[in-house]
Amino acid sequence: MGKGRSLELYFVDGKPDGMLTAEVFNWTGHVLKIPRTRIADALKRPETEYTGVYILLGDAEGQPQAYIGEAEDLKARIRGHVAKKDWWETAVLITSAANNLHKAHVKYLEARLVELALEAKQMPLENGNAPARSSLSESGVANMEGFLDTLMMVLPAIQVDMFVNKSFEKSAARSTTAELPPALFELSTPKRGVQATAELRDGEIVVLAGSIARAQWPRKHGLNRGYQKLHSDLIELEMLKVSGEHAVFANDYAFSSPSAAAAILNGRAANGRTAWKLKGTNKTYADWEAEQLEKDD
Question: Global pTM?
Answer without folding.
Answer: 0.67
